[in-house]
Fold:
Amino acid sequence: MLARAGHASLDELFAPIPAALRLARALKVPEARSEQEVFEHLAALAARNEHAQAGPWFLGAGSYAHYLPSAVDALVSRAEFTTSYTPYQPEISQGTLQAIFEWQTLVCALTGLEVANASMYDGASATAEAALMAMRVTRRRKVAVAAGLHPHYRQVLETYLDGLDAAVVTLPLAADGRSPVPAAALDPEVACCIVQQPSFFGTVEDLRAAAEAAHAHGALLVVSVAEALSLALLEAPGALGADIVCGEAQSFGVPMSFGGPHLGFLAARTAHVRQLPGRLAGQTVDAEGRRGFVLTLSTREQHIRRERATSNICTNQGLCLLMATIYLALLGRRGLRELAELNLAKAEYAKARVRATAGLSLPFSAPTFNELVIGLSEPAERALDRARAAGVVAGLDLAPHAPALGPAVLFCATELASRASIDRALGLLAGAST
Amino acid sequence: MSRNAAPGIGYEEPLLFERSRPGRRGAEIPASDVPPADVAKLLGPLARTDLPGLPEVSEVDVVRHFTRLSTWNAAVDLGLYPLGSCTMKYNPKLNERVARLPGFAAAHPFSPAERVQGLLALFFALEQLLAEISGMDRVTLQPAAGAQGELAGIMMIRAYHEARGEKRKRVLVPDSAHGTNPASAALNGYEVVSVASGADGILHPDAVAAAMDEQVAALMITNPNTLGLFERHIAELSEIVHAKGGLVYGDGANLNALLGIARPGDMGIDVMHMNLHKTFSTPHGGGGPGSGPVAVKELLAPHLPVPVVVRRSDGAFAWSDDLPGTIGRLHGQHGNVGMLVRAYTYILSLGAEGLRRCSEMAVLNANYLLARLGDVFHVPYPGTVMHECVLSDRSFGDSGVTTMDVAKRLIDHGYHPPTIYFPLIVPGALMIEPTESESLEGLDRFAEALLEIAAEAKSDPDTVRSAPHRTRLRRLDETLAARKPVLRWQPDEPSR
Structure:
């Protein structure tokens, strides 16, 4: 091979690299190990991590523990999906393209909007990209953010806006735990209001009122969803006036994986499709008139438009999109609804138990889905440590995220939570030691 | 026709929504052990009543649907996938198994650091390995893909200049660069200035010197570049940029050529991203998830995204937000962690020698293909290439056969086409990256397919121009898709 390539040695192949730039030593990387040795090393690292399959789990806050149907992993493990590239050559990528088209259709159905892209990195960057899109559509540079937006989404939004001469203002938290959009807090400079549904505190927002307030000032309403399962139970944001719906679809069959890879999504109205970031699959026909799918409207994208693209996104979260499409197909019209109702029922049961438990309280009165804030009578860190000592992960300590609340945890009850485990977790939070 | 593709039975498959039949379902929900929730009472008008847009299909429907769809894809596990600058190498199965261990896959990002020490230890070790491989000082694992890594790098460059009281306005990008480079710089508010490559396909010091001044924040450079050529003036280019106070951004998309051979950090690069889904074998997944860690020299370390992993004096690992110059948080949590687990597994499996061997074989394979094809196909920039080579359709003259036709005809031979019409500076480019995963026989078969197509372009151009002929669907009408966008299924769309 070397001779055919016109070289006498492997070293000579690298002659274009000036000698002074060549590495004169071996990399300080451990020597190669067998598959068994590497597996054992990684298994030992994995064994040192707390995880949701080891015991009762009530921690959500943007990454949700749901049951993963067996068919999801079996199907996404097919190498034809796993080891293919972005479908730039449609004739040999129809599997990926049709799945993207199906995902776009499902996202439109769940959000009540007309066009959805083929995924963003995660809920946080999807929210930041939604704000940038709203700024392009309205040609304005101010973003109003609800207090109930996930604190990490808020931080990522600020990172993305830094350097762009944009302003971020915060809408206050109401006593019932919601973040209403007061028309008086807006002005004609505001490009969009970003409201999370349900909020970081689990409360269900009044999106119709938020949309009216935003639209009265010519601003867009961006609804960010961190727990996508809620879309099966709550009115579609698009039907209530939201202009962009974005967020995190990890709940649809994607493992939590320590926060990633997750599945950002973004949907909008057809009128704004030219300002949409990310990839789109569209329907077309082949040379014989048969239906097929291609990536389309790519003049918005970086590989065509370069510095004038709507976003720099290229590789996105393709395989996670496939997981979610399979998950939604399995659960389907009735299963997804029943699952969402079961989540609601578990959280409502927890609420009723909190009301009946001395030492615990419900600081917020607004309706919730599967997550709620529970007030404690001691520092949350202590209560959560006690629960962990008994093998229960009983929620998120809100002290770093919302110190004004006093001692409190964010408690998430999904279909994985049994009645007995809810009783036990709440008992531990209230002071019991087992 | 070369013996790679074979005839076989393929299946048609409608959309999920067209398979839907009332009452079917693919999953049962467990019986409830708590009182049912009164949705109307609890949520009133906030609730929706139904999900008519979701399909009703059984589990076997779903399994057949997606299994059939999968058979319509080309994939690395089926054969050579020579997409230039995409590094479609083999993805070892161990990586997949390890990433699914519950201690990784079911871990939660809000678990306290002391409860996820295995993950933090992996982060810390992977950061050190990537720093050593790239020749840099510090690494962030947060960026979810190469383009988000570029954005992080550009933001750190901005933060660096602003910390010195400077507001620079421009970023230099060679005309051979990936589209993400100018898009990332523009996304962070920079004006992009394109710098022309020389007649030999690489960037020359005089071109950069002419564009460089105190208003330029950075030069973004890909090395080897998208022609597969090593930018041999890189050290001098870096000096020119540094002399005017600018920084050098390295796009690591083509790092697969350099493992253990040379390090960007030793060439004057100040900040670079690496694509774990290219160089470090995490699967591409039909368009992600990827992972784009960013490595920096010490001068940019104060501006890394937070949180960062630190090792405490007692040896335990912790998160730290204590970085006053940080650009902030870039990812909702800690990045595409499942990809980090896979890449770490890959590096440990290969070791120092194995990594070097990857690059040696990747470069040998690219040069071998170039030697086999260069007499027949036009080679716009002759010479020794690194991990990929670029051909063009100029050799087809007035036959009417274009790069697009060659690409589509390759499909009939059972190959995914190379990257086409990129880089933009080569009209009709065919950019071929075989990677180290291919054997000599595999490369020969691929070369023979391309040579056969070149001969066919002369003897029977119409067959080439109307390819593909052996696929389930013939050539697809991309113009129609863009002119009349149909971006979702609707019940009233006429079915075809």
